[in-house]
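Margin note: ligand = zinc ion.
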Amino acid sequence: MAEIHEHNSLILCRSCDLMVKKRALPSQVRALCPRCHTALYDTPYCSINGMLAICITALILFFPANFLPVLEIHFFGSIRTTTVMEAALAVGELGYWIVAVAVAVSAVIAPLLLISSILIQVMIVKYGLHISWLRKSYITLLKQHSLLAQLSMLEIYVLSFLVSAFQLSDFADVYMGIGTTCFTLLFVMAIFLQREYNLEHMWSKLDD
Ligand SMILES: [Zn+2]
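Resulting structure:
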């Protein structure tokens, strides 16, 4: 049924090298090695409430990150600002439609869908796994998860934006806009979310 997300779910015991499967822990609880009882880890992971908080923060940051100016270009006394959406459109108008679509999908659309999907999964785990249509939606979301996770590449956006900033800085003064701050924070939230989320563990919620 579940495809195994090997991604940081196995750890080695420091003392006896036993391979141990990492599991979600309630807070204040420590995981011990089953063979030699060395303490392995004590941070809760894949915590439903933790992910809920991260998802909500990320969604709040998402809109200013994408719709407020990320670059301010001062050029011969005039000031131009650019948002992520405008940047993608501008690349498209230059004729690079494939690049524009790739940037829009990987930096805007897929991350939004991914964060929303995790938020819905978390809400279903918290309140709705006993309701059959929500349970079915939950399974559908888990099946889509890997694809969305692979398509989400906020760092592509960060790269393309740095390249354009450096190119422009040759003939204009370029400043970071408020959107950049929001985007950086969004990027940090995405890293936390990826660290916290564990697909295999989410599948196991169906058996609880
Ligand atoms: Zn051990």
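Residues 1-45 form one domain.
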